[in-house]
Amino acid sequence: MTASRALNGTGHIARATEERIQIIAEKYKYRPNLLIRGVQTGRTMNIGVIFPADLGFYTNVLEGLHDELLASNYSIQLSLIHQHLGEHAIRQEHQQILRLLDLRVDGIILRPVNDDASDLYFKEVFERNIPLVTIDRKLENVHCDALGTNDFKAGQQAAEYLITKGHRNILLAATGDIVSTGRERRNGFLSSAEKVKGVHVSIINETDFKHHENEARNALTSHPEITAAFCVTDILAAGLYNTALKLGIRIPKDLSVLGFGNLGMGPYLNPPLSTFDQHPAKIGKAAAQLLVKRINSTSEKKRAQQKTISADILERQSVRNINSHETPR
Amino acid sequence: MTASRALNGTGHIARATEERIQIIAEKYKYRPNLLIRGVQTGRTMNIGVIFPADLGFYTNVLEGLHDELLASNYSIQLSLIHQHLGEHAIRQEHQQILRLLDLRVDGIILRPVNDDASDLYFKEVFERNIPLVTIDRKLENVHCDALGTNDFKAGQQAAEYLITKGHRNILLAATGDIVSTGRERRNGFLSSAEKVKGVHVSIINETDFKHHENEARNALTSHPEITAAFCVTDILAAGLYNTALKLGIRIPKDLSVLGFGNLGMGPYLNPPLSTFDQHPAKIGKAAAQLLVKRINSTSEKKRAQQKTISADILERQSVRNINSHETPR
DNA sequence: TTGTAAGCGTTATCAT
DNA sequence: ATGATAACGCTTACAA
Predict the structure, then answer these.
(1) Which domains does chain B have, with CATH numbers?
(2) pTM flag (> 0.85)
């Protein structure tokens, strides 16, 4: 017992005893057994993290998460889920959650597979009072903290930005209603665009990316008045670059393109893609902070918080200002 | 005790008892405490993984690792190290290794910060007989399993490929001697190129990527006879695209470019970059297999294995065949 | 086939 | 300030 106190620096202890014990510990290379400490204290200082197997954007979220958790002396128990497996992915996710619980993690950070999970799906988590923070998905029927981008606002910013640059006929490449993030960006964009007279938006709204190229070609050829496009993700923007190239449409001279997500290919496209930076590391950091706070809060009653990090535009060279006085030619 | 046997399906037990216990377990929603099981059995079924914080290439290694480990019922304890912090990174790494040990992981998979660690650096790991597999770095003075790309061979493949395509004056963009992977690719390339008469290699050999653009410009202007370049990493290849653009050199008409690593920007470059696929998921999978085998092997005496995954060329559109009969103009 | 006893390494609690 | 005791939940070893 005295040894425990000396090594952890907890409680009253004589300086001399403390030093003596520390010396002995060093001599015998004592190392604590964190498993048993976890059992005993009820806190493992281990956080479960569940992300899509194809990390992409989440690598940086993970990095932010990791750094912040490490700063609070937490480790990360990582699970990856292959998202494309449909129902099987959901089963996998649930199983991994149970495993993390069995491992006695102190909290869970999760980018859920599907948007419409309910409290019931997470019942084991709640029963054990393990704090849960979701990333990038607001689960309507789940009462837990959530963290993500303010996608609606970002969509608004996109519209305002392109309109400010003089564009009035704009293509909106969106991804349907299934994924909440893309849906919000689209809705935000439309809400802002509608407020400005003389602005016309052509919209592609396909969940399947394969359909986008065709639709984009149709839109651009039948509406030559379009001078700008907002793509709800950089992947669509990159696709649009190809379509434009095939049609002989030059970016940004003939068509301005604004992407979303700063997904890594942006700087390598020609011209470099202007896009939204979601600050993924900040998202991770904030999620970790929320979780740690929740773990340490004795009053379990605090309502679920939905925190949001603002994305902002990273200007590169794919958007042109077409206001007459700025482009005199 | 009987319950333990029934729930784990281990040992002799009456069918009736087993079922009765399982029903009770279900009724009370019994879940095992994996911490205590780990303490008791000496196996936590948890593997420590330490990767660079800036995962990049390692995201896919991690994915392969994860899937293979999961198949063997292992979880992952993840640590990230910020590589650019020099000595501090090494301290961090060491601390994380100790932490994983305290957490009683059954094995460790590590992409080490530095190439010249010795057995001493890992002494705590060896003392506890925890298997260690390194990724992408052959530590000369450490007796542990290692997994990576066969970089020397890949370098040879690169030379042979470009030579087969008719190139005789080739630029080799390399990264000095510090990082073993790049060094091996360079040496492999040179070893194959030297064997063929009439082949001349101009070499840039700078660790700092910033110097590459200048050097490349010099090389290309003073040696207009150069028709191809092999870049030891895609990042250098992307840089070379820019340099070429500035100099009015067209790819692949005037200059063929072959990259390395398939780092993600390749398909988005113009023209799409031909490069080496290192099959990172396979590397992860093989590393996991090696580790699991090592964990299960009772005879600890088996010598360290160095397994290697062959990289191969992913042909896109940045390398041109300039043999006269194929390009009649 | 089932059950008993001991022990894993630590901390909480209470006593000295 | 220090120490004794119990407890955490499980499995190994052995007994019945």
Answers:
(1) 1-32 (no CATH), 44-149+280-310 (3.40.50.2300), 151-277 (3.40.50.2300)
(2) yes
